[in-house]
Amino acid sequence: MKATRFIEVGQPIQLVDLPDPEVGPTEVLVRISGAGVCHSDLHVIDGEVGVRQKPITLGHENAGIVERVGSLVTEVKPGDGVAVFGAWGCGVCALCEQGEENLCQKPIYPGVMVDGGWAEKLLVPHPRNLVKLNGLDPVIAAPLTDAALTPYRAVRKALSRLGPGRTLAIIGVGGLGHMALQIARALTPATQLIAIDVSDAKLAMAKELGADHCINAQTEVGAAVKAATGGAGADAVIDFVGNDATLANAVASVAIAGKLVVVGIAGGTLPFSFWKIPLECEVTTSIWGNRRELKDVLELARRGLIAPHIERQPLSAINEVIARLHAGDVRGRVVLTP
Ligand SMILES: [Zn+2]
Ligand SMILES: [Zn+2]
């Protein structure tokens, strides 16, 4: 099978031929229809997030068609369309027992610890890591497994603050942010939505996706959010970037007793003290999502309530795609279609 290989920081990704993986008794081999290229892959490529083995095939947003199943697998069969739930937990710790595999302390993420989906085929350790698509196009489903699942969990964390007369501000209208706008619109239609980004092109997309206000982050963001909310600030803010500048804008934008959800892993610091954030403002992080939430996200897509903006590219275009993602020159999500 053809597979892309990340060899070392600073080297281009290579496209190589590898033998098909052996399929063990509980494993499933999936022929990849779509594999998303995510901003967090850049953190791996740049060496900010370490991988467990090199070379490794990256790619944690995967969907496709079941090609082969292990002798003990009965849940799926060859020919089934499946989304790959990517937060592969250990399955036995307290958090995995609760279904929160995305919080497992010993995860085996594809594309970080073991080979991921930027290839023609992906070996999945267990059928519990698959969700049947029931008619949904796997190329559409691939980015939903992270670019929609992650904002879905983050929006749900903020839902208690949202509704008629309330405001949600979304910082960063990239692969995740453009899905967050649609998810918020679907889950809480009466909430006012504010989109914040440094790119006017991305803000134009946010407008198309139903944002009520768009604010360029090169202006005074906090003041603009206050102006759009009668001086109160946004009841919830989700930061999909997470650098020093966006976290400062988030604090300047959030209301008293509001909620700030940090999703972006850019590594910025939020100065936190009693008086440095609005009174009784709650701050939390949110990471990926669990399998139950992935099922919810796929249902939103089947019902036509959310739809990722997708650009299809072959595996051979991977280095060019990475360069464009670095430059902020991708609208929505690039999906590799081997
Ligand atoms: Zn990702
Ligand atoms: Zn676990």
Explain how this protein is built.
This protein has 338 residues and is of the alpha/beta class. The chain has two domains: 2-132 and 308-336, Quinone Oxidoreductase, Chain A, domain 1; 149-285, NAD(P)-binding Rossmann-like Domain (Rossmann fold). Helices cover 27% and strands 23% of the residues. It has helices at 39-45, 94-97, 138-158, 177-187, 200-208, 221-228, 244-253, 291-302, 318-326; strands at residues 2-5, 14-17, 28-37, 62-69, 81-84, 121-124, 130-132, 167-171, 192-197, 213-216, 234-239, 254-262, 282-285, 310-313, 333-336. Strands 3, 4, 5, 6, 7, 14 and 15 form a seven-stranded mixed sheet that branches. The chain has a six-stranded parallel sheet with strand order 10-9-8-11-12-13, sandwiched between helices. The longest helix is centred in the middle third of the chain and has 21 residues, at 138-158. It starts with a strand and ends with a strand. The mean pLDDT is 97. One zinc ion binds next to loops.
